[in-house]
Every structure is written in C-alpha cells, then in structure tokens.
Amino acid sequence: MHVHGSPKWHPETLAAHSGVGQDHSYGSVSTPIYQTVTYQHPGENLGPYDYSRTENPTRHSAQEAINRLDGGQGAILYGSGMAALTGLVHTLHQGDHVIVTDDAYGGTYRLLTDVFSKFGVTSTMVNTRSLDAVESAFTPATRLVIAETPSNPLLRVSPLRALAEMAHSHGAQLAVDNTFMTAVRQRPLELGADFAVYSATKYLAGHNDVLAGATVCRHEEQYALLNELTNATGSILGPWDAWLLLRGMKTLAVRMDRQEANAVQIVQFLSQHAKVREVFYPGFGNEEQDLLQKSQSSGTGAMLSFVLHEPSQYVDLMNALRLILPAVSLGGVESLITHPFNETHRELPEEVRWELGIVPGLMRLSVGIEHVDDLIADLDRALCALA
Ligand SMILES: Cc1ncc(COP(=O)(O)O)c(C=O)c1O
User: Fold this and answer.
1) Ligand 1: which residues within 6 Å by Cβ?
2) Among 3.90.1150.10, 3.30.428.10, 3.30.300.130, 3.40.50.300, what is the CATH number of 252-384?
3) CATH (one of 3.20.20.140, 3.30.565.10, 3.40.640.10, 3.40.50.720) for 11-249
4) What is the DSSP code string of 37-72?
5) Measured by CB atoms within 10 angstroms of the end CB, which terminus of the chain is less buried, N or C?
6) What are 232-277's pLDDT values in tens digits?
7) How many CB atoms lie within 10 A of CB 302?
C-alpha cells in the first residue's frame, strides 16, 4: 500500500510493485486472480464490480499499475496490442483521418487500410521523422497521429515533442506506440502525447506467454470514453492474462537493463561482421537521430535489425542459429529473430516494403536476457557458416 498515491517513486520501483497491496480482503502481497464473471450484490445496489466485461479486480489492479508507471489519468487493458489500437481508432468518427508512421508495425497498417477504411476512416502513412512531411499530410479531417518510435523494424526515431505540438495545433491528438521502449525508457505523456499505446505482449509482460494490449490516457475524459467503448465492444483482457501481465511487469526494469546492455554489445559485434552490410539501432551511426533519441528517451532498448550482404541466405542463417529462436514477436526473455520482409511486415505492399528499406536481407533481432557471450557466439557461428 505504501506505493499508492506517492508521486515520487521511480518507474523501476513502481514496476516492481505492480499490483502489490491491492487485496483488501486478506492483504495478500500479490494481486489475486478474480476468476469470476459476476459479483453478488445485496438488494438493488450493485457493488464496485458487477460484471467482468465492465470491470474486474485483477484487471483493475493491472490497469492501475500501468497507469501509474506511465503517469497517466487512466489505463485500459485489452486482449492484445491490436485490440488497444482498435479501441483508439474507435474514438474517431466516419470521415476522420489518421496519420501513421510509415514503418510502423505491419498490423497497424492493416488495421487502418483493411478494416477502418470500410467505416470511412482514412489514413496516410508518413515518414514521421520529417516534420515537413507530417505537416503536409494533415487535412482538415485529421484527428489522430499514431507515431511509433523507435519504429519497427528499422528503429527510426521520430520527434515526439514536436509531433505532439503539431498534432495539437491541427486539433488532432497524438498516440505513441511505446511498445519497444516502455515507460522505463520513454515517457510519451510527459513529452506531450495524449495516449501511450502498447502491445503489452512484448516488454511489459516480457515472457512470451501472454497476449495483452494497453492504452494509457493523458486526460480523464479520454479514459472515460475508452472505458465506455471497451465495455461496449468487449475486447477486454481476462483475469488470468491480467495477472500474468502484472507478474511480468515486476521485473520490467531489470529485464530492460539486461536486454539493452546485451543489445548494445551485439550491435557493436554485428557492425564489424563481414557478412553484415548494415545495422539499425536507435541513433546508431546517425548523430541527429542519436541526439533525438537521447532527448526523449533514457535508453535505446533491445531491438535491432541488420541487413545481410547476401539476402538469399536469411533462411540458412535462421536454421544455423541454435540459441536464438526463429520466431515472430519480441520483448521476451528469450532472444528471437524474425525476417520482416516475409513475416511481420508482409501486410505492406512489396513496393512499399522496398521503399521503406524493409528489404529481403533484413533480419530483426529481439535481444533477450541470456549471457551476451552466448548470443554473440551463436550469431558468429551461424553467420560464418553462410557460404
Ligand atoms: C510495435 C507494435 N505494436 C503493436 C503490435 C500488436 O500487438 P499484439 O501482437 O499484442 O496484438 C505489435 C506486435 O508485434 C508491435 O510490435
């Protein structure tokens, strides 16, 4: 209980105490799993909970933990990151327009182009690193900017403070997909954003065992609206999954420290490897991007990507790795390698992938908590085995 209400604790402390002190019945340190659909109520009066789609104590506890971590005015938890993004777009109306980072997660693109376009919400993919490009993409109907920074999979950095100001000057709101950084590295609401959106499946939960999504709101009215829409649409997170998320969040800060330290060493290793043409990591090799990342984040995270000199060797590379698993997803304790061109970003038209730099030789690596020497040895052996 000591954490509650205190604005002074560091994010690391808040993360470690996720869900602690929430059990008013027995004082259990860990939040219990309230595996119930409904709640008894005496007489006509409903209690604080009446039906678990509307509210559930385990989910509530996890929502509070995420909200506290991001410093928001309310958070909603969803069944996946895509459900969180869907919930956000549900706040719009027919005829509204969205601007979205051009190399954002492929599923974000698919949601806007394949689903919401049918309901009259239009979108434009823009290089959000360029304020000129963003400025010229605004229309009188633009109500929402979705920025992903660092982006997936090219780890490009967009200027959040300036984007927030620009969105507000056009009467729009800024949502930041903060999946790669989390609030222990980057704090979108403090940089002026209206929403921090997460695939909580990734670093927040951290163990590749639960799908979850979250949106943290800067303003109470936005929270009230999202809450109402989520109750209406029903895309909530179940109590077991909310508990797994809470359990994972407790170690978020130490996992991120370890994963980031590993990633920094792997970037150095790969950038000197003869089989690797180019390495992407936030700010790496680009002074302007580096300064920007430092001005809005307290670290660089644990996602990186690299381009093979010989693109056709990507399958051989994945097959030759023994420790790093070829699998989509990211942010967990185990290191995973992905081929964005054919996997995470296949929703983008091929010419758009090429234009963005999502080329066939590009590999994305989510660095885990293993010993870094083992990770480097695995990569070295597999890369050297390529013809
Ligand atoms: C940056 C980003 N946002 C959103 C999502 C979607 O999240 P989920 O898979 O939890 O629906 C992902 C998934 O990979 C992602 O990487």
Assistant:
1) 80-82, 105, 107, 148, 152, 177, 179, 199, 201, 211, 213
2) 3.90.1150.10
3) 3.40.640.10
4) SB---STT---S-SBTTT--HHHHHHHHHHHHHHT-
5) C
6) 999 999 999 999 999 999 999 999 999 999 999 999 999 999 999 9
7) 29
